[in-house]
């Protein structure tokens, strides 16, 4: 028999009854049932109930074992009685009668519980991550992660892509976040950067004629952590294709992503036809460029109903052409109590309030109630109701002003109303494309144009648009894939013309010389027969978070950092030694306390 095990803790079935076997694993829990001692033994593959009685030579040692001790058990497989079969456990038809026990590794008192799924302080969980990872849900999440990534590789290969690995030590690139810099020992005073994304390299692969590339790529960004992005590093399904339009990218990747969700959705419905929603429409209808389409609320502009009305606050605002009034229709929200709660919530967000109308039957008559309805009159109130498709027991909330300043708040109000009224169907995956993103945006702090998204994207209209169009009206061949309110992928058709590239960067204040110095490899490559190309990158971590139903990326990552970007398990980051600093020709300039 093998030194440690003949079977795993998930192997044994009724067909093994009568066999003598050997298992090794961790003590999940110990239960004393008046003379009989039950030990649930766990390993990566499952759990087996083991039993020892006082007549066994192993009983005395079995009494000493505690939770999370690592032990080896020899014993005989026996069938459980009908009333003791555990149908929730794959090994639930049998139990192992212990004949011998060996303690392979005793455990100190546990700093956090492994049995059960109770909440525990994050700093303890991350410091003792090796114990945290033994917990059932987290352990399953990590296994699911590996399965999802394996499926990504399988489907991408099946679709005609080939995996290539790009460098980790590279040059700084403007991807929208701070770089992690790595000092060069050999070239004093210079630094490599860890890649924020393999953007330039994957485009260079298209220049080199590789046609269809993909990679499960590690990416590094020195930015503040948040729930849907870990500090430091993340992984993306990175891909690029030659001789394609954006439609080709969409039709190629929709089956891959849809199939991935269907494979791991555990029966939850998945979008079959991905909607393509223009960025401007998404902002107007949902107040976000990553809308949760499970929420049925669609906002509408209702300015006409308030122009010249008795509701003077809105009427005066609408005297300026840029201002609008948007309505957030809320089915089943037609009670004063709910409307007051929404108004209080808005004030908690720093807003003056949230205007509303709710509709109710008064006898045979359906009428609007609330201060706005009183001020605009029955005719306008009824016209609003009809436009919004509302009935008895429904409500509408209103936001007014410059849409560029209020759309985010309006979107948050839509989300709040949908969730509070339980209108959101949480047991499905709704995917869509957001398309036609702005190419440029205005940087108010620096009073200059910036790229709105990927600076290497192709502007719609090409050189003519860059030379003759208001830059803030130029759209890009840029697209995001969104699922349940999360951006899970972003991509574009690339700008492969050197002249167009220079013109695009000139708009944000970079000269032709700057472009050649900062993006020399790509700029030179474009001058030697550059094919039209495009691609995207899908966030591996976010997709897995959605599939397992986790609320935080730390629940699907092996050894994450905390919210302060510290690795509590390994103690990183750590101060360098003086010898290391000398080798790197560096001197620290610490901030004053």
UniProtKB/TrEMBL annotation:
Is-annotated flag, keyword Hydrolase?
no
Q: Which UniProt keywords apply?
A: Aminoacyl-tRNA synthetase, ATP-binding, Cytoplasm, Ligase, Nucleotide-binding, Protein biosynthesis
Where is this gene product found? Cytoplasm
Q: Which InterPro entries match?
A: Aa-tRNA-synt_II (IPR004364), aa-tRNA-synth_II (IPR006195), aa-tRNA-synth_II/BPL/LPL (IPR045864), Asp-tRNA-ligase_1 (IPR004524), Asp-tRNA-ligase_1_N (IPR047089), Asp/Asn-tRNA-synth_IIb (IPR002312), AspRS_core (IPR047090), GAD-like_sf (IPR004115)
Q: Where is this site: Important for tRNA non-discrimination?
A: 33
GO cellular component: a single term: cytoplasm
> Does the keyword field hold Ribonucleoprotein?
no
Function field: Aspartyl-tRNA synthetase with relaxed tRNA specificity since it is able to aspartylate not only its cognate tRNA(Asp) but also tRNA(Asn). Reaction proceeds in two steps: L-aspartate is first activated by ATP to form Asp-AMP and then transferred to the acceptor end of tRNA(Asp/Asn).
- Assembly description: Homodimer.
Q: What is this protein called?
A: Aspartate--tRNA(Asp/Asn) ligase
Gene name as annotated: aspS
């Amino acid at each position: 028999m093998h030194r440690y095990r003949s079977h795993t803790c998930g192997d044994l079935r009724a067909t093994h009854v009568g066999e003598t076997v050997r298992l090794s694993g961790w003590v999940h829990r110990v239960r004393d049932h008046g003379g009989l001692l039950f030990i649930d033994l766990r390993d990566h593959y499952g759990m087996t109930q083991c039993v020892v009685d006082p007549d066994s030579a192993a009983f005395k040692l079995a009494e000493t074992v505690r939770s999370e001790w690592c032990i080896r058990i020899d014993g005989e497989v026996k069938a459980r009685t009908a009333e003791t079969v555990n149908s929730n456990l794959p090994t639930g038809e049998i139990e192992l009668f212990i004949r011998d026990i060996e303690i392979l590794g005793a455990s100190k008192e546990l700093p956090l519980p492994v049995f059960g799924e109770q909440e525990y302080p994050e700093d303890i969980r991350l410091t003792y991550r090796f114990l945290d990872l033994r917990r059932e849900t987290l352990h399953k999440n990590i296994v699911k992660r590996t399965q999802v990534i394996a499926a990504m590789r399988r489907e991408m290969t099946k679709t005609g892509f080939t995996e290539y690995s790009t460098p980790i030590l590279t040059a700084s690139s403007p991807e929208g976040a701070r770089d992690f810099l790595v000092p060069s020992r050999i070239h004093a005073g210079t630094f490599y950067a860890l890649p924020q994304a393999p953007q330039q390299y994957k485009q260079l692969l298209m220049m080199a004629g590789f046609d269809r590339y993909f990679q499960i790529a590690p990416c590094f960004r020195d930015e503040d952590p948040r729930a849907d992005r870990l500090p430091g590093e993340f992984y993306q399904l990175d891909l690029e294709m030659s001789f394609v339009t954006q439609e080709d990218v969409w039709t190629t990747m929709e089956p891959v992503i849809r199939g991935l969700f269907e494979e791991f959705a555990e029966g939850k419905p998945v979008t079959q036809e991905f909607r393509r929603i223009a960025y401007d429409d998404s902002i107007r209808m949902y107040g976000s460029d990553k809308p949760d389409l499970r929420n049925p609320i669609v906002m509408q502009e209702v300015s006409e109903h308030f122009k010249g009305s008795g509701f003077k606050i809105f009427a005066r605002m609408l005297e300026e052409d840029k201002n609008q009034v948007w309505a957030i229709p809320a089915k089943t929200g037609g009670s004063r109590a709910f409307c007051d709660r929404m108004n209080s919530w808005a004030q908690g967000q720093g807003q003056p309030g949230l205007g509303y109308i709710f509709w109710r039957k008064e006898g045979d008559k359906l009428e609007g109630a609330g201060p706005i309805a009183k001020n605009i009159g029955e005719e306008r109130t009824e016209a609003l109701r009809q436009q919004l498709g509302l009935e008895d027991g429904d409500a509408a909330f209103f936001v007014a002003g410059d849409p560029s300043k209020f759309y985010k708040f309006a979107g948050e109000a839509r989300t709040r109303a949908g969730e509070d009224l339980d209108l959101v169907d949480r047991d499905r995956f709704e995917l869509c494309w957001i398309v036609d993103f702005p190419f440029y945006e205005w940087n108010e702090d620096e009073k200059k144009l910036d790229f709105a998204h990927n600076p290497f994207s192709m502007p719609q209209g090409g050189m003519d648009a860059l030379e003759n169009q208001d830059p803030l009206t130029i759209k890009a061949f840029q697209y995001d894939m969104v699922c349940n309110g999360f951006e899970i992928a972003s991509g574009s058709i690339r700008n492969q013309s050197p002249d167009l590239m220079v013109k695009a960067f000139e708009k944000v204040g970079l000269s032709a010389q700057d472009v050649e110095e900062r993006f020399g490899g790509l700029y030179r490559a474009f001058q030697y027969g550059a094919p039209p190309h495009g691609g995207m990158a899908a966030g591996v971590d976010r997709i897995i978070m959605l599939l397992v139903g986790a609320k935080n990326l730390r629940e699907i990552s092996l050894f994450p950092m905390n919210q302060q970007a510290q690795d509590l398990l390994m103690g990183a980051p750590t101060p360098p030694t003086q010898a290391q600093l000398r080798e790197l020709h560096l001197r620290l300039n610490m901030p004053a306390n």
